[in-house]
Specification:
This protein has 352 residues and is α/β, with parallel strands linked by helices. It has a single domain, classed as 3-Layer(aba) Sandwich (Rossmann fold). The chain has a 6-stranded parallel sheet, with helices on both faces. Helix 6 crosses helix 9. The radius of gyration is 20 Å and the shape is globular. The mean pLDDT is 97. Pathway: Nucleoside biosynthesis; alpha-ribazole biosynthesis; alpha-ribazole from 5,6-dimethylbenzimidazole: step 1/2. One of its GO terms (biological process) is cobalamin biosynthetic process. This is Nicotinate-nucleotide--dimethylbenzimidazole phosphoribosyltransferase. Catalyzes the synthesis of alpha-ribazole-5'-phosphate from nicotinate mononucleotide (NAMN) and 5,6-dimethylbenzimidazole (DMB).
Length: 352
């Protein structure tokens, strides 16, 4: 297994010449220049990532990383921690939102236990890669050790490597973990420099009292650990979650193999944010699936320079927004390959 440093060293710049060649084809399709807006941007971006102006429909795969959080016991979520394993079983049974939307988008779903506080035994279909039985309470002590953070990053990288080896050339990361918006808000505040209250939302539906408690917990954690944004791995260990670390590793490995990732909402965005702090070039391989209702998500996207494909007031997570956006990416590829050029159609092109 590659080390974190080895994975980062393999990430290459995009092929801008392939993007220029793709743009030349887009400009010759039977439409005014730029008339298909973001569909054209997506097609060009895919060409740059793949290093070729010949782009086919992606073979997409979704990995849902599940883990528990010690901070969930501090009243930061209206749902009890036992919902995490219950939802893992629901996803494995095909009954969750991510299953429905992935089926529509023609993407397979893999579920990975990276840190659920539950013994799944020999549950069929579950990738068992548990690093720990959840994290510690970040407001009282470090959520993870550095070694646990590295292990979880490694789990994500291994999952990405396996999916790519099995034929996937576009990845989506989803997640399941009660309480996980709290560590994500803490990390987002740290890396953006924004006040905690400006990046902390209601998660799964907190009331005003619960939101105030959540903000206090995050501020306490930041004061306790005094993390540095210049040391992202240490910050991830102190404040993060095992599924967040796994998503980070998943995105790093995808970028190292030249494979695009559609970023979902606030949790996946947090994993992406950590990945881009570890290796800024990762951002070139990311597509923002949507703009989440969680207020910190917009801050994340701005920090990474990403423009969301969709804005549908989503806040479910699991990878659902990214799975929806995959259908837009598929539309962009279809337009690129199937729309006639001016020459093909015998239509007079734009003059100058």
């Amino acid at each position: 297994m590659s080390t974190l440093e080895e994975i980062i060293a393999r990430i290459k710049p995009l092929d801008r010449s392939a993007g220029e060649a793709a743009q030349a084809r887009l400009d010759n399709l039977t439409k005014p220049l730029g008339a298909l807006g973001d569909l054209e941007r997506l097609a060009r971006h895919l060409a740059e990532i793949r290093g070729s102006a010949d782009i086919a429909q992606p073979r997409a795969a979704v990995a849902v990383f599940a883990a528990d959080h010690g901070v969930a016991q501090a009243g930061v979520s209206p749902y009890p921690a036992e919902v995490t394993p219950q939802m893992v079983f629901n996803i494995l049974a095909g009954g969750a939102g991510i299953n429905v939307l992935s089926r529509r988008a023609e993407a397979e779903v893999t579920v990975v236990d990276v840190g659920v506080n539950y013994d799944f035994g020999d549950t069929p279909g579950l990738v068992q890669a548990k690093v720990a039985m959840g994290t510690k309470n970040l407001a009282e002590e470090a959520a993870m050790t550095l070694d646990e953070a590295r292990q979880a990053i490694g789990v994500g990288a291994q999952v990405a490597n396996k999916l790519i080896a099995d034929g996937a050339d576009l990845l989506i990361a989803g997640e399941m973990g009660i309480g996980n918006t709290t560590p994500c808000a803490a990390l987002t505040a740290l890396f953006s420099g924004r006040p905690v209250a400006e990046v902390t939302g209601r998660g799964a539906g907190l009331d005003e009292k619960g939101l105030a408690q959540k903000i206090r917990i995050i501020e306490k954690a930041l004061a306790l650990h005094r993390p540095s944004p210049e040391r992202p791995l240490e910050a991830l260990a102190a404040l993060g979650g095992l599924e967040i670390a796994a998503i980070c590793g998943y995105m790093l490995e995808a970028a190292a193999q030249g494979v695009p990732v559609i970023v979902d909402g606030f949790i996946a965005g947090c994993g992406a944010l950590v990945a881009t702090r570890l290796a800024p070039a990762v951002a070139d391989y990311l597509m923002a699936g949507h703009n989440s209702v969680e207020i910190g998500h917009q801050v994340q996207l701005k920090a990474m320079g990403l423009t969301p494909i969709l804005s549908l007031d989503l806040r479910l997570g699991e990878g659902t927004g990214a799975a929806l956006a995959l259908q837009i990416v598929r539309a962009a590829v279809a337009i690129y390959n199937e729309m006639a050029t001016f020459a093909d159609a015998g239509v007079t092109g734009h003059q100058g």
